[in-house]
């Protein structure tokens, strides 16, 4: 049984939307130093109208929401022991329970010992009280199993605590050398002991948010009827065209090499036999150059031509020697591809909904960890995440962005100029100082983007032309967010075979090598588009952290690859 619920738009709702759009767009933009310019004032009014129009359209044209009448079946516990989080949230006081975890801190008094035990399922863990000599010799880092009665706590820090009756030490800890003590540690120090840093409060909070973020994205895609695809890590193509890729070569053992040399030296006949049976040369195991993937987009396009709505999430690799806090050699990407998508605005609406709903999921389900990070890492974190969820994203074209930057009066290290890429300083100023929130920048010059992005139609090209300069643009978008800069990049894909063929020639790419890509246009081509989000950059945004190496469990970057 399904029931349909259709939202109604009243005059009061209309006024609310009007006030919200005016309050969050015009007021924010008018506060910038560039507001005195009449052309920028017109730009601000256009952004306001766009924000209000989108908010109104979403409310009035929303499809009926189908709600299942039956509740979803819950999966029963499959393990014998409960986590500390489950015990504290589902167990009534005066119940005998068993707790397993690591001691985070101890406080010894004359006749009693207080220990905080944590198993990673929640931020604070549980306070356990051991009477008499039970707690003698217990130190931070020790793994224990405690059995006792869960009682109401007299302290203000926790609602429940464990009155221990039996204790078992599972693994002892050397207190003299254990590096995690009850004090604040710098992130630089924690990176040096990355095999233990997940026991620290900040690191464990980030890991839980990382897990919840992945689940939040998956829930969103499931709600939009997407199919998850596992794209390969090994590829023959450099999707982004930057050339910063890792090439694959097999490692041949000394024994295998010796056997190969023995066969070579026996006779010309055996050499011929061995060459036919020993496989390709070590440098080309697959018969042609193969690289670690930088993106799963091209593979997603293959599957989208059959399943329509697909996404993938997995590690990608870039041989980029940059040592900035924003770059890694191995990181995770969330990528989506949608068939039958012919308008860039629809792609923007979809990506905005994805980010808003996933962030909303975190605010609703990870409040304890977000509150902790808001207190100790970034005191504006909750405000920014709430703003992202509640306020529409701003939108502007690349051409408009360059004009705003040029008239801003700001002293940038790199002068903003049409035809050149936006630098990090430009992106951060646009999102942080000018828009004061997320902003989509669309329609970049074709010369700045990869071959697969769809060239804009003649009317769009004409509207952005200036002088004799070639101002051909492509239907693409970068999402800029405060403090980070670029978070997401996407585009409509070139579905016209003749235009794509010209693009391959212009970029010096062999048509034969990309024949399979042309075939997707030859056999039932459809307009389509997609985007990719750097998962670690999203985590920087939702945690308030500054360095990407602190929000991935095992960071890999230039001259660093441990474990």
TrEMBL record:
Membrane-crossing residue ranges in chain numbering: none
InterPro entries, per database record: Aa-tRNA-synt_II, aa-tRNA-synth_II, aa-tRNA-synth_II/BPL/LPL, Asn-tRNA-ligase, Asp/Asn-tRNA-synth_IIb, NA-bd_OB-fold, NA-bd_OB_tRNA
Record keyword ATP-binding present: yes
Alphabetical keyword list: Aminoacyl-tRNA synthetase, ATP-binding, Ligase, Nucleotide-binding, Protein biosynthesis
Region Disordered, annotated ranges: 256-280
Top-level EC class: ligase
EC number of the protein: 6.1.1.22
Biased composition (Low complexity): 267-280
Record bears the keyword ATP-binding: yes
PROSITE patterns on file: AA_TRNA_LIGASE_II
Domain Aminoacyl-transfer RNA synthetases class-II family profile positions: 217-553
Domain of life according to the entry: Eukaryota
NCBIfam families named among the record's database cross-references: asnS, PRK03932.1
Matches recorded under PANTHER family: ASPARAGINE--TRNA LIGASE, MITOCHONDRIAL-RELATED, ASPARTYL/LYSYL-TRNA SYNTHETASE
Family (UniProt): Belongs to the class-II aminoacyl-tRNA synthetase family.
Protein name: asparagine--tRNA ligase
Origin species: Linnemannia gamsii
């Amino acid at each position: 049984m399904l029931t349909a619920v259709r939202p109604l738009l009243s005059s009061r709702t209309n006024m609310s939307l009007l006030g919200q759009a005016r309050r969050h767009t015009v007021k924010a933009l008018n506060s910038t130093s560039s507001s005195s310019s009449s052309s920028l004032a017109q730009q601000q009014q256009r952004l306001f109208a766009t924000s209000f129009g989108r908010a109104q359209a979403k409310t009035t044209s929303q499809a009926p929401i189908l709600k299942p009448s039956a509740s979803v079946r819950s999966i029963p516990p499959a393990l014998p022991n409960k986590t500390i989080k489950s015990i504290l949230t589902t167990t009534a006081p005066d119940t005998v329970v068993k707790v397993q975890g690591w001691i985070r801190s101890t406080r010894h008094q004359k006749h009693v010992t207080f220990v905080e035990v944590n198993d990673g399922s929640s931020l604070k863990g549980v306070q356990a009280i051991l009477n008499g000599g039970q707690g003698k010799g217990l130190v931070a880092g020790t793994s224990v199993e405690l059995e006792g009665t869960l009682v109401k706590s007299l302290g203000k820090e926790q609602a429940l605590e464990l009155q221990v009756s039996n204790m078992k030490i599972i693994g002892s800890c050397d207190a003299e050398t254990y590096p995690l003590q009850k004090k604040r540690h710098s992130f630089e120090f924690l990176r040096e002991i990355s095999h233990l840093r997940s026991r620290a409060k900040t690191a464990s909070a980030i890991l839980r948010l990382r897990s919840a973020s992945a689940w939040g994205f998956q829930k969103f895609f499931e709600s939009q009827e997407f199919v998850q695809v596992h794209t390969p890590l090994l590829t023959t193509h450099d999707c982004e065209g930057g050339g910063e890729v890792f090439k694959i070569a097999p490692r041949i053992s000394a024994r295998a090499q010796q056997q190969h040399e023995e066969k070579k030296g026996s006779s010309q006949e055996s050499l011929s036999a061995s060459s036919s049976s020993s496989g390709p040369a070590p440098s080309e195991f697959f018969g042609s150059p193969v690289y670690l993937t930088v993106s799963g987009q091209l593979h997603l396009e293959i599957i989208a031509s059959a399943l329509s709505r697909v996404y993938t999430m997995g590690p990608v690799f870039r041989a980029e020697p940059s040592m900035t806090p924003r770059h890694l050699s191995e990181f995770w990407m969330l990528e989506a591809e949608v068939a039958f998508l012919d308008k860039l605005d629809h792609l923007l609406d979809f990506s905005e909904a994805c980010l808003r709903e996933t962030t909303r999921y975190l605010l609703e389900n990870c409040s304890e960890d977000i509150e902790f990070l808001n207190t100790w890492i970034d005191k504006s974190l909750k405000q920014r995440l709430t703003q992202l969820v509640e306020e529409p994203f701003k939108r502007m074209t690349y051409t408009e962005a360059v004009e705003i930057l040029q008239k801003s009066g700001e002293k940038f290290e790199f002068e903003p100029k049409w035809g050149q890429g936006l630098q990090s300083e430009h992106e951060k100023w646009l999102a942080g100082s000018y828009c004061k929130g997320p902003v989509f920048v669309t329609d970049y010059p074709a010369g700045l983007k990869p071959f697969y992005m769809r060239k804009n139609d003649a009317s769009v090209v004409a509207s952005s032309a200036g002088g004799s300069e070639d101002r051909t643009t492509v239907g693409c978008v970068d999402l800029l967010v405060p403090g980070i800069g670029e978070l997401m990049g996407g585009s409509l894909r070139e579905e016209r075979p003749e235009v794509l063929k010209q693009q391959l020639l212009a970029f010096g790419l062999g048509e034969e090598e990309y024949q399979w890509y042309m075939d997707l246009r030859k056999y039932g081509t459809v307009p389509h588009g997609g985007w990719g989000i750097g998962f670690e950059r999203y985590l920087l945004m939702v945690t308030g952290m500054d360095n990407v190496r602190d929000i991935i469990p095992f960071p890999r970057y230039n001259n660093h690859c441990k474990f």
